[in-house]
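dumping the sequnces here before i forget
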Amino acid sequence: MRPRLLIPFGYPLAGLVLIVIAWALACWLGNLPTAVLPSPDRVYRALVMRSDLLISEGWVTLKETLYGFLLALVIGLPLAVAVANSRVLNLMFYPLLIALQSVPKVALAPIILVWLGTGLESKLAIVWLVAFFPIIVDTAAGLRATPKELLELAHSLRATRLQIFLKVQFPAALPFVITGAKVAITLAVIGAVIGEFVGSSEGLGYLLLSATSQLDTPLAFAALFALSFLGVFVYLLVELAERLAAPWLPPTAERH
Amino acid sequence: MPFGAIDHVRKVFPVAELLTRSNEPVVALDDATFSFDEGELVALLGPSGCGKTTLLRIVAGLIRRSAGSVMIGGHEVHEPLGDYGFVFQAPSLMPWRSVLGNVLFPMEILRRNDKAARRRALELLELVGLAGFLHARPHQLSGGMQQRVALCRALIHAPKLLLMDEPFGALDELTRLEMNDLLLRIRRETGASVLFVTHSISEAVYLSDKVVIFSRRPARVVTEILVRLPEPRSQKVRFTAAFTDAERRASEALGLVPPVAEMEAAQ
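..and the predicted 3d for all of it:
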């Protein structure tokens, strides 16, 4: 394999193989019952045999995650613009937003279920709640961190407020928006699963719960894997959006 | 009538704007008075933190003055007049725009982004030696190249006045000398007036027709030094008696060396 592929893919793959081998050895040598820790081949079999179920339940969770995330984006961005551009709104709400960000919003899940029932609405509300804060807080921070010189340049040319917003403030804030969106999408998956744990009759979180209650541990593990795939998939979607919206940003790995 | 007249300009920052422990308002600029003609390059020279940058922003109409008057091209400045270029100490380019996009930014704001604007952008980039980098992103360029893009951006709308705030202060010596020559050439070709803030004595003398010298805070204009050097200027004027004489007069005014008369008396 060429070094260009070896470093990003070869080494992580080798690490993964080692972990799976250790896992298999632990199952076989430790003689663990399947209900406690299923061996890799059993989980693999569950993944293949129950793939229809995993895909249909995964589709439910994916929809909850994406819809909730988009809702957070659609509501969070305009609010961030309002908070960042109005001194009064900023003084009123920014400290509150920061404070609310540290509230464990997952704890609200049971209450939301009481309000909105066990359908899609309650999942959307929970996902929205966890995804909303990183988006609005990061976007507002980004909008207020516009380089002073760029604002002065625009003012010196007698730019209108709209021009300043569209051509300076917003593009300058875009990296912050993306950082917020990346945190939000990761939290959104967690929110969807929590929503399903608390009360639902479908989705990967529900499947995980019902599989463990029936001691079908291989299926539970398969659901866990499907959830991981889903998490990585939606994260990559956000990265793709980043590449399209902000091609000037260096790749994430080079930024740190 | 001079093109620009800065008359007894004063700037006092209220305490709230600055994080100082004292309760006294801070006098950033005590009294600045000088004038310049169309096409003149005036260097504003003084110790750092002496309010030169503040003065430049007052002339630009970006911040309000506490007292005094600023006339540019027959207009009293109260807000940005929209007819000058600004070059900052950092290039301050937009990372999301290409080199060409950055240069054309002022034309978009002024709603004059037409074919003629594009042609002029290409001419300017050609002039500063960046014709091959039209579609490069700012982060792909060196500091000196970025500052040349910033210079093109400041010139694209053919402003009558160029305001430059220590534009080459962050560059290495050799790049800085190159940029000085480039600025002289651009000035000859555009005929723009330039206000140039610097704290390099030799840069001030090399570039300008007149050096306005500021004292420490609270800053006042101490004196003006007229610079007469053979034109067109090139690096060799640095080694002429006229150049060293102007440098010496500037140093004296800044209080760095005692006046010649005193030195002779002491000997």
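Residues 173-190 of chain B form the longest helix (18 residues).
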